[in-house]
Amino acid sequence: MTEATLMPVAIVDDEADMRASIAQWMTLSEFKPETYSRAQDLLEIIDADYPGVVITDVRMPEMTGLELLGELQKKDKGLPVIIITGHGDVAMAVEAMRAGAYDFIEKPFDPERLADLARRAAEARQQTIDNRLLRRELADGTVLLRRLMGDSEPIANLRTQILDYAQSDVPVTIRGERGTGRSLIARALHASSSRMGQAFITLNCAAELPEYIGEKLFERDRSGNPPLLTAAGSGVLCFEHLSALDMRLQARLEQAISTRQMPDGTPITTRFVAISDALEDDALDETILPSLDTALSALEITAPPLRICGEDVLQLFTHYTASFATEYEIAQPDITAEDAALMLTHPWPGNTRQLINTAERFILRHRQGTCSLREVMDEGGEEDMTRDPSRPLKEHVEAFERLMIEAALKRHRGSVARVMEDLALPRRTLNEKMAKYGVSRADYV
User: Fold this and answer.
1) Which of 1, 70, 121, 434 can bridge 53 by disulfide, Cβ–Cβ 3.0-4.6 Å?
2) Which residues does residue 413 pair with via DSSP β-bridges, in sequence order?
């Protein structure tokens, strides 16, 4: 993990030794610590888009941790703040939780427990930021085009299905192979609906301790937060790896979802989404109760595998290599005809996730010198298979031509004259090919 990908954690404490100790442990726990001796110093630089977590002592001169919490809440109520309190200071801890703190920890504390709190807070923060970004993009109607990229029929149908199902309130199961963007589909479904301003909570059932997950679903936690089945309010609760739940708990969950009521009679207004590894044609996973699967599958969406999305592979690869080239500060390398043919014939068993990883390796290798995509994929241990060995050469050539024209238009910001010079094509030939492939200069100006 590079430093650029580490989540920042702001540590506020007037004691230098304590700041240094917490910062050292956060570094070991794969965070990027930022230390402040005064609460005012943090307030001067932090804003509503701060991508990290705040850890603050409660007793400090000038401004206390509770006062800092109040000021941070004004900037962003979704910013996780972990309060460090004195031993036995229960009243202070309760006040902090009521004021909106993410959690508290008492001195002297186990540093691993603090790190665990920070990890959970970081996951919540990342989810908040992702949801905000999704809502901002939806405001101009382009999120599905930018996040669910592609012009193929399967992707176009997926976008339509998401927009249709977003208008409903019944449970949805999203099926598909790993790496096909099922989590993104769940978020897009929520962000396209009338619930978009409400919470989106993900529960990875395999990541929770079996003895605690029932309590988490049906009971309030020690801080008084509501059970997860109602915590999202009128938002969405998204289940991952439901098969990790024991059958007894699955039965309780099915009862709550079907009746829309908690065991104590509290109504449930949350919409439920499940992410499943089972495909439409597969037999039901025997580790999931059929009644629970039925309750969660009033509507179903199947994420299309990358291998059936045709030339979308080239579009996606170009997009991600451009993104990684910017991140690693190198010029985006050209894609050869051989690279394009390999992408179009490779089966991509890991789907989009595999393609993204390959695009990053491709860029990293180009920092050391030029290389082919074949070399990168061989180094990655990817199998040399073809999706359709009988596909006509003409289709590969046309796909590559379209890719090259689009890349040149993007590079020259829609200047036809420069594209003609770059690709050594006369104007009439370039115009004919642009018309043939449905490429518009206006999209790149």
Assistant:
1) 121
2) none
Determine the residue type at 275: I
What does the pLDDT look like over 47-92, one tens digit per residue?
Answer: 888 999 999 999 898 899 999 999 999 999 889 999 998 867 778 8
Closest CA to 373 of 412, 413, 403, 411: 403
Burial track 36-61 (b if 16+ CB lie within 10 A, e otherwise): bebbeebbeebeeebebbbbbbbebe
pTM value?
0.62
Q: Is the dihedral of CA 12, 18, 21, 25 positive or negative?
A: negative
Look up residue 332 and give its DSSP letter: P
Structure-token pair, residue 345: 């014939």
Helix (H, G, I), strand (E, B) or coil at 231: helix
- Contact between 13 and 61 under an 8 Å Cβ cutoff? The reply is no
The pair of structure tokens assigned to 87 is 């031993």
Tell me how far apart the alpha carbons of residues 21 and 430 are, in angstroms, rounded to a whole number: 63
Question: Which H or E element spans position 25?
Answer: helix 16-28
Q: Looking at residue 340, what is its pLDDT? A: 85
Q: For residue 384, count other CB atoms closer than 10 A to its CB.
A: 10
What is the torsional sign of CA 15, 19, 20, 22? positive
- Measured CA to CA, the distance from residue 26 to residue 110 in angstroms comes to 13
Of 102, 41, 50, 45, nearest to 76 by C-alpha is 50
Question: Are the CB atoms for 355 and 342 separated by under 8 Å?
Answer: no
Q: How far apart are CA 391 and CA 398, in angstroms?
A: 12
pLDDT in tens, 258-288: 999 999 999 999 999 999 877 654 545 568 8
